[in-house]
Amino acid sequence: METDTVWDVIVVGGGPAGMMPAGRASELLGEIGQKSKVLLIEKNAELGKKLLITGGGRCNVTNSEFDNRKLLEKFKDSGKFLFSAFSQWAVKETLDFFNKRGMATKVENELRTFPVSNSAKSVWNVLVEYMRKNEVTILSNSPVTEIVEEKGLIVGVRLKSKKIIYARSVVVATGGTSRPETGSTGDGYKWLKKLGHTIVEPTPSLVPVSIKDSWVKRLAGVSLQNIKISLFQNQENQGSLKGKVLFTHVGLSGPTILNMSKDVGELLKYGEVVISLDLLPFDDHGVLNTKLQELFKKHDKKKFQNSLSDIIPSPIVPVVVELSKISPEKRCNSITREERLSLVNLLKGITMNVKGLLGLDKAIITSGGVVLDEVDFKTMCSRLYPNLYLVGDILNIDRPSGGYSLQLCWTSGRVAGESAVRNEFPLLR
Fold this sequence. Notes:
Blueprint: E1 6-12, H1 16-31, E2 38-41, E3 62-63, H2 68-73, H3 79-86, H4 91-99, E4 105-107, E5 112-115, H5 120-133, E6 137-139, E7 144-150, E8 153-159, E9 164-172, H6 187-194, E10 199-206, E11 209-211, E12 223-233, E13 236-247, E14 251-253, H7 255-268, E15 274-278, H8 285-298, H9 317-324, H10 337-347, E16 350-357, E17 365-370, E18 375-376, E19 381-382, E20 388-390, H11 404-424
Parallel strand pairs: 1-2, 1-9, 2-6, 9-20
Antiparallel strand pairs: 3-5, 4-5, 7-8, 8-9, 10-17, 11-14, 11-16, 12-13, 12-15, 13-14, 15-16, 18-19
Helix pairs in contact: 1-5, 1-11, 8-10
C-alpha cells in the first residue's frame, strides 16, 4: 500500500455495509476513467466475520418485498427517513446485483430470501470479488482509533499504530455492538460522539429470551411453526405475533421471538412478563374442543399420553401432558369434560415466565447509534461534516428479523459509496 496516498474514499469496517460502498465507489471511479483510490480498513484478519454467521450461516440476504412503502413500514418510525435512500437502491436492485454475479436466490417464509446454496459464503464471495474486480485496496488487521477532523472537515483516520491515513471522504461502517466476538464492539459510536454526533446508547434489539420455567430446557432444539405468541403483563395482553418459535437450553428464540424481544425488554422495566404460546392459533376454543372430542373418541382405548400427536407436534406432547395434570396413563374414554376443557385452555395458552433477555453477545442486532436527524439520507452523509458518510448498524434504526438488516446495509452502503465519489467529482452529480 502506498503510504503517502491521499485516498478518494476510505471505508472503515469490512462487513456487508462496508464492502458494498467500497466496491461501488471504486467501480464508479473506474467508470469515469479514474484510477481506484478506495481503501477498505478492517480490524480483523478477515473480512465479513459476522456476515459468515448470519442466519445460522445461511445468510438472509434480503426480504423480497418490492413495494418500498410496505417494506419500510417494517422499520417503524425509522422508515420515514429511509425513503430517499431506498428510492435509489432497494430490494430489486439488490437481487439483480447478486443474481447477475452468479448467486442464485430463493424466497422462503415471510419473503425471507437466501442464497440457493444456503451458504453465507456465497454472499461473501460476490462482495469480495466485486471489490477485487474494481481494485479496492484492503488493509486488514488494522484497528482504527479515531476519525481525524480539521476545520470542519474529515481528513482521514488514525490507526492503532498512531499513523494517520488521509482521505477526501470517509465512510463509517463499523456496525453496532451485537456479537462483539466478530469485531462489533461499538468503536464507531465513540469516534462519532467525539466528533459531536448524538448517540443513542445501544441495547439488544433482536435477542433470545431466557425463561424461568424448568420444563423449557427439555425442549431445547425443538422448533414449532405457525405458533401465536402473546406477551402479558398484569394479565393484560401487550401484543401478539404468529410465526416460528425455537426452544433453547435457556429459553426461546426463533424469528418471532426475536421480533418481540425489544417489547419484552421494555415491559421488563415495569414488572413481570409472561409469554403465552397458542399451539393451534387457527382453531378457536370451540373448534378445538370439538376436535379433542373426536380425537378421544377415535382413540378411546389409547392412553392419554399417546393420543395428542395427531394435533400437536410429537416433541412437545410430553410437556403438554405434564402441564395438563391429566394422568398420562388415563384412557381417552375416561377423560372428563372438565379435563378436556382445561386441556383446550392449555393448548391455546401455554404460559412461561420471562427471566430476561440474553446479552449483547447473543443479539442479532442492537438498537442505538447515531440519531437519524443528523444524517442526510439522500446521500448517507453526516449533517455535521460534508465528507463523512454513515451506514448500516452505526445508525439508530430498528428493524425486525427477516432480511431487513442486510437490506439496510446494501441500500445505505450503495448510496454512500456513490455519494462519496460524486461529492469529489462534480461532473458525476
